[in-house]
Protein 1
Amino acid sequence: MGSDSLPSKLTSTKPTPIPTNELDDDHDHDDSPSTAALLSFNTDSSSSSEPLSTSNNKPLFIVLILVTCISLSVASAFAYLFFSSRSSSSSSTTTASSATSPSPSESHARPLTKLNRPKVILISSDGFRFGYQFKTPTPNIARLIANGTEAETGLIPVFPSLTFPNHYSIATGLYPAYHGIVNNHFLDPHSGDAFYMGAIDPKWWLGEPLWETVVKNGLNAATYFWPGTQVHKGPWNCPLNFCRHYNSSVPFEDRVDAVLSYFDLPSDEIPDFMTLYFEDPDHQGHKVGADDPQITEAVSRIDRMIGRLISGLEQRGIFDDVTIIMVGDHGMVTTCDKKLIFLDDLAPWINVPDNWVISHTPLLAIMPPSGYSPSDVVAKMNQGLSSGKVENGKYLKVYLKEDLPSRLHYSASDRIPPIIGLLEEGFKVKQKRSKNKECGGSHGYDNEFFSMRSIFIGHGPQFARGRKIPSFENVQIYNLVTFILNIKGAPNNGSASFAKDVLLSAA
């Protein structure tokens, strides 16, 4: 790590574990009381108070026998229909239940058939909003879902729901305040140095990412584009042929083929952990929003890449042995000109010049110079925003970072500016009015918004087939991978029991 004071301060901060996302593995039981009697018959001849006349005994006796026989036949028919219906209902309930939970035969992980130890491929499709998979046929993604485990209503990003903070949270299991990548662009308040997305100085990248953990445990890792992988940290030195430097012009097909080629190496040289990254559909989402036909084509393209990967693994006879974890880093929401807020409109209350603003949108981050009280700035900004005189002002609320909702976990780093503004979904902040018109898409909003969710699909020997699990934050993925690889991980914000809740137990 770097020698500046900020990393040493952050690494001494004890991460706050989040509650376990306990899964309810118990099935509903039929607690209805046992059925007593379907129909009641009184066949006791002594119930009659008057003796039968001897002259009418025989005919009456015959009538009674006939009535009794008919009644018993009717009762038997009703009983048969009742129990048949009940049995059918019970059978349907069992079938529905097994569709969302592992069958008895799926209680244990499936053994490897060709590989000698677990292999994990972690795939990120940038900006793959949950629900995109329903926009167009995605047969290959659907195959992973049908034969694997899916977060039923999506994967929850960390805040801010931006690319670099989330990719590094997935890799480290830490919230941005603890791993140090608090935004796509930010300043070190001590040195004044600026972080940008190509920065590879280890001083920025705190925590221990999966590729470092894997190598530290004596295994092999290979990364094909993932934020932070070019950084030399600990035992990880971005080895030639196993660490590709980011280049957006590399065709997606070449990326998939490179990962597949690792499986042609001698068995003891095959990486145990691999990453694979695609820029789509984030690239299209920013240009056209979340609902444009270009998104549909981008999603289809990603599905074709998943199909290419599956086909390559099948040709090598190892598809069922390899664990594939497919995720996205965040979602996407459509934004247009009518949803703009201009900081210059706050001039009657306070002047917020451009050089105070670290980022405008969708995460408003402000660092006033010394001599200005952050609390006074917040008070005056909120006064103007709530006055009804600032266009769309009610859709922005400004906080001191320590007053942000605790669920955001966004206050424990000096790299986070003292003033943070939270926007309502789809709104954007600009410094001043202009005649430029725009309508596209954005992300970075409160991770509570459903539109910010992405996908999680796990397929492999330790994932139950056809299982749906509740949504969870992406800081849990680090522990999931270390559990599958059976290695010791670094301290993180994930739950220690999460992997045991999600994965099948060892055979």
Protein 2
Amino acid sequence: MFLVLVVTEELREFLARARSGAGRLIQVLIRDEQLVLGAYREPRQSWDKDYDHFLLPLLDPNEPCYILYRMDTKNAQGYEWLFISWSPDQSPEDVCLQGYLRHVTSCSAPAPLTAAEQELQRIKITEGRVKQVKTEITVDPKHQTLQGLAFPLQAEAKRALQQLAERRINYIQLKLDTEKERIDLVHTSPTEIRDLPCRIPLDTPRYHFFLYKHSHEGDYLESVVFIYSMPGYSCSIKERMLYSSCKSRLLEEVERDFYLEVAKKLEIDSGEELTEEYLYDEVHPKQHAHKQAFAKPRGPAGKRGNKRIIKGGGENGGNS
């Protein structure tokens, strides 16, 4: 059910005259389900200097009211006015001059971002800063391409890669320091295939180099396998983007500077995938033989006879 408030004739006429701009403030009260004129003030100084002096004394903690306050600015219809609805459950600080200015600032500010939007904004800032100082650009006559981000390898990480190249260790785990923009060594614990699932973190990405020792077709092999572990969406968007962007440049540096031939590059989201059978099939994929179609038997050698035309019988099976 709606309550209809009637505007008194006195207030209606007063509002009509107020359009000329002679008044600064008009207070409207509710009396017997009618809107009546409460108070009226004429301008003395600029709108902001008159604001608190005129408005705050009219705020009754026990009675709601409406206030029309004239600004000094104009538009096509004349002076611009503020409409203020005062209720006793509000604080005067909400409608004072500073409260009004805070309201204007909040209205002109960008809309608040969600957590995901804030994260994307941080990624764009970080990515732009990193690309300026770290990204190499390859230029050809037709286009430019960014070859990925290049975070530098720290000394311990380089030493570990050299040891792997010399077959003195068989496992390396690396991580990105996204704040310092570098690649750090996590550890080089001796690792067997059965240990690999335990080496994969559940909540953060990692780079792994594993020396896969095995036999294939009677030959003993030591194959370097690169594993990029990314545990789904349990890590931040920023981490996913940076790890993905740095991967190719890291592999280029490893193969170029440490002469490590990477036999297989894997991307996983869980350590449960890393079994003996899985690694073997990835390093030595099965070759699928193509099934040969049956050849059509050839006809007898020699010259074929002339083609013969055989006439069919009539509708009743008789000769024509």
Protein 3
Amino acid sequence: MIDGRDTEPLVNLSEVAEIELFILKRMKEFTLGDHASVFKGSGVSFVGLRDWEPGDRLSSIDWAQSSITNFSPIITREFEQPSTATIIAVADGSLSTRCGMHGVSIGAAIARSVAAVGLSAVFFQDMFGMMAFDEGFHQIAAARPRIGKPHVLYCLDLYQRRSPTDRPAVLSDVTTTIAGHLRKTSLVPVISDFLFADAARVIKELSLLNAAHDLFLMLVDARFAYQLPKVSAGWLEAYDIETGRKRVMSRKEFTRLAGRVEEWQEEIMRLARDADLDIVRVGLDRWEMETTLVEFVAERRLRKV
């Protein structure tokens, strides 16, 4: 297990920039051309002014107001559209996601997925927020929805820089929090490897939320973290980072872990479909992940991600 405060971030700024460029290119391909609009409204509503932050678009700068302040600071305009959606990424922040192989953790794939969803929200001027949950599906961190790339970067930092000891005094269930705080229909991608014991219960609860919100699952392919090197020992001791338990297993059982993870995640996909939840599987490869997500958006008839 790796403490994110002392190591390289799960996703760095250069990777975020690559993801953003890819999304801008692909999403423009899907939004250009003739297609029926599913939204009706008065257009863009002015929300207010704020100081410029790194990542803001040049087109959002209010040059007249900025000249009054002698461009110190630069002032930007914020807008809200009746057609915009509130997007809350629910990300798995359990201790097991900080484990992996060859210096790459499961959390890296989750962080990249959060970045892809968040930057897609920026493209559509949607509000983006994030919740992180632990192995018991309890909320451990949250960021309220806001518009703009700087807030997406803040959410990424909140996810990957938190320590295992950073826990709120009172743990609240994620599904209860979503139901209680999101008052209008929102887009809720739940990003996890779903390698926890009561995954079936969680999927059932999420399916109930799907009646009020546009909820779908992003299953992080965790097989790579269990494709362990060959060992000569006949017996090995494994340690569970979340429960603190130890278990002795044979070499044969040890080599079957990746296969068992694959079987478990296939069962998760079946449970999700039975619960009428959309699900998409993403892996570590950035380009494959982003292509998969964009194609997933297209299949959903340009519903915002």
